[in-house]
Amino acid sequence: MEGRAAVWSTIGVGLDVTGAIALASVAMWLVPRRDRFGSAGTAMVCALLLTALWSLAAAAASASTSLAADFIPSLAESARNLAWLVVIYRLFASDGRHASLAPIRPVILSLGFVEVMHLAVDYGFTRIVIDEKVLSIAFEFGVMFRLLVTVGGLVLAHNLYAGAPRESRASLRWPATGLAILWAFDLNLYTIAYLAGNWPEEIAALRGLSAAALAGCVAIGGAKNRDDLRLRPSRAVTFQTFSLLVIGVYLVAMVAVAQWLSYAGGNFARLVELAFLTLGSALALVVLPSRRVRAWFKVILAKHFFQHRYDYREEWLRFTRTMGSDQSAPLGERVVQSIADVFESPAGLLLTPGEHGELTLAARWNWREIEVPAVALPVEDIGYFESTGYIADLDDMRAGRESAATAPGWLVDHPRAWALIPLVHYERLVGMVVLARPQLVRKFDWEDFDLLRVIGQQVASYLSENASQLALAESARFEDFNRRIAFVMHDIKNLASQFSLLARNAELHAEKPAFRADMLVTLRNSSDKLTALLARLSRYGSGGVDRVEQVAAAAVLALVMERFRGQPQVVLAESRDVAITASRHSLEQVLVHLVQNAIDASEPGSPVFLSLAVEGMNARFEVLDSGAGMSADFVRNRLFKPFVSTKSGGFGIGAFEARELVRAMRGRLDVESREGLGSRFTVRLPLAAHSDIYPNYAEKVA
User: Which PROSITE patterns does the record associate with it (predicted)?
Assistant: First the structure.
């Protein structure tokens, strides 16, 4: 035991000296900066120095076993307490509360009187010789005096900060915290000393820590950046700390009651002690893990420890995690969960507008047992929620306290239904969320409404964007269908023009053998084109062609020139006998379209030149005219855009289809044009001699 006492004495001396050094250093640092505490600056410097002297006195008398054994530490402690009471009074005076709060001065004077009386009694007992029983009574009286001062000091420190105006709290926060630490430690120390009947040397050895903490708090309070050093614990840390504190209090209470029962003695007392411990442990195992108790703890902490109920940063991060993390879950379920998490609701529903504006069930989240009718909320009951964004408490509707909004009977009759939250996007209702009753039910307040409106608007934008994407996807499918039909109509229009011309000429030249031979060729070509058209219907939108094979480029060029035999302005400028990899019919279609466009853009009689040359590994087909030409903006933004045409009655898909066919043959279509000068269309396709570089050319493209 003596060795253990020596260890604690050494620890106490080290901590007391450390605390004294910290206090003295802060006091000297604060001297030129004492105006930062207003009229209390000088008093605070003196209080710090007296507290440093008290720590040194405690270190010198660390071997003492009672308060009456040495008068010096007691005198130093009383001087310390009196000095800090003066500091508190001056801090109250800094914002005028010493005059507006009448009890402040009497309380401080009363605590000062208790300290002086304690000093007198303590001094008297050090001068006379008394027996052990009287000494024990004197010890208890001395501890009681100290407890009165520490409790009074804690009350004053609390009122100093809690009752201060908002603009004054920055300068009072840290000094009040330091005094609270100092006197809270003393309160525990003297409480244990009173209950134990002797001086707890182990705990007393740690008093230097409270002195060092006081020095640190005062230093922070005197710093320029003290506002930036504000302690802002997260809600998770606060909740866990509070939970540990509750568990600690519970354990202390268990030990105290068990100790009290053990003093009664006897077998019956022992039985009661064991029964109490068993019952208390079972109660803790049942109550502490309860979600309802945890929810109650969180509500109490948010109400009394924080300015706002919600940690908005944490709520927003949780919301984004819920909406973006599990993409396998449907969007509707994630919307419900993101709002339910705000109130720890276990389940919910999402209602969205149907075809006629009524709300229907769109998603469930953990709520399979509730039966939702086909029309969850009729159109006539939606207008109020849409115009006001009103968040309905279904308990108020059941009690008849809400008459403006109307909830459907199936919700009002269901006991788990708790809240109805509208999702409004640009003044349009895109959905409503129904929440199930949480473990701890409470009334909605302004913070709930504000947070729910923000989250509701965000999830409403998600739902609206998702609906727009679905509509765009559906529109894209219809657009693809319409594009195929437009391509078909374009090709049929060309064939119809050929048949019409053929019919008119047949009336005039049907008897001529040459005409009949030409008519048979035209009919055969038209039949082939119709067959190819039917084959292409399945590949529009995929960029494919019928078949890519080795083709004689000059032969295709000859077919094109044959098509325009009656057009003398079409001139073959150059031709080369080369083999290319392409689709014969698709290449002919592309060149015919380009030549016909060149003729349409040129003045009558103005030549249109068609040529074929070799350029590196490609064959280059050129269609050159000197017509009206096109602007750079038109070429860049409109020429190859489907359904945009400069021709009256045109479909606007010829150039787009030509480019897509050339791309499908692994070629390239380029355009050069100047307004008033003409245009040059260049088609480049790979030579057959280099087809090994393009291994997929010989394959049939579906």
Answer: HIS_KIN
